[in-house]
Amino acid sequence: MKTKKMIWKSLAAIVMGSVVLTSCIDDPDPVALDATPDVFVQKIVRDSVEMYGIVFWVLGNKALDSVTVEGPDDTVWNLEEDPSGNRVFSLYPEDEDYADSIPVAGDYTFTIKSTQTDEAALTRKDKLEEDELAAVVIDSTEFKNSKLGIYWQEVDDADAYYVRLFDDADKLLFMSSLLDDDETDYAFGVSDTGWASSGDKAQNGEDYRVEVMAILYESGSTSNNRDYNIQFISIGSTEITWGE
Fold this sequence. Notes:
Blueprint: H1 7-20, E1 35-46, E2 49-60, E3 64-70, E4 76-78, E5 80-82, E6 85-91, E7 106-114, E8 122-128, E9 138-144, E10 147-152, E11 160-166, E12 172-175, E13 185-188, E14 207-217, E15 230-241
Parallel strand pairs: 1-15
Antiparallel strand pairs: 1-2, 2-6, 3-4, 3-7, 5-6, 7-8, 9-10, 10-13, 11-12, 11-14, 14-15
């Protein structure tokens, strides 16, 4: 199972970023570089073993050239330009990057450079806390009344959930709206909103992967900034055949 891309976050960032951060496009006197970083942990379950991967993400108020991150144990990561655009740089774990030990808590230092000639690099820190979520347990799925229903066990301390559907090429086809922390089931069909493309929806008899994501935000985050202050995401998944 590939879990590298977090498309929902990149899209949310661009929308909110257009409001919260000032763009310098067509400005004869460009504003100084500013950026919002986030570091968080993703958990998956592989062969009954809980595995952890670390995620880095930065949104700038102008085009970015490079972003590096140094962890509290002096490990360094180089982020990559996100497919959503050069204002977002990110790094998500590949399958081989997951480990059975949780990443080190503490301050992660982001060094951010814009594409503006001779502009000094910007340094920002984001703290990875020690809090984590239990593994997401999907109890069952069923196809009823032309909709796929997913049922899972409530995850203690989770702040919210998302449900996502991927095809066998790991392409994101569907993502739910944000679900409340007490939700334990969700159903959707091809006529519901949430499909990434109106021309690319689930087909009867085809195999897909459905995921339930439990989200924990950083302590002190608010409804206005929580998308930029994620602490932990726990992902449970199962294979389904649409229509069966």
